[in-house]
Each structure stands twice: as structure tokens, then as C-alpha cells.
Amino acid sequence: MAELLSPTNDYVFKRLFAEAPDLLVDLINDLRPDLPDIASVEVLTLTQY
Questions:
Q1: pLDDT of res. 2
Q2: What are residue 8's phi and psi, to 5 degrees?
Q3: Which of 1, 8, 19, 22 is 20–30 Å from 39 (CA)?
Q4: Distances from the Cα of 38 to the Cαs of 11, 25, 43, 49, in angstroms?
């Protein structure tokens, strides 16, 4: 199956997860099951930190 957009691309990542931060929270929590769940995230640009 051909990959249309790679989620590792910075633009795609920010479009996907900055517009739906609940998806990013779910992904992070699924990737670290032995740690306490996080409740929220904020996606920053390079100029915001």
C-alpha cells in the first residue's frame, strides 16, 4: 500500500496532531503504558520555545 503522507514529516505531524491534540495524547499514552497517563499536550513551533 502506498503511503500518501508520512506522519514523520514535520508539516504532516503538526497538521495532524496540532489540530487534534487528543490524538497525540492517546498516541503518547499508548507508547508509554508503564507511566502515568498525560492529560494534555501543546505542540510548539521552533519560535515558540
A1: 57
A2: -85, -10
A3: 8
A4: 24, 7, 14, 20
Cα 23 → chain centroid = 7
For 1-49, the DSSP string reads ---SS-TTSHHHHHHHHHS-HHHHHHHHHHH-TTSPPP-------GGG-
Cell of residue 6, nine digits? 508520512
Joined together, the cell numbers standing for residue 9 give 514529516
Q: Across the 49 residues of the chain, what is the mean pLDDT of every consecutive 10-residue run? A: 72 84 94 96 74
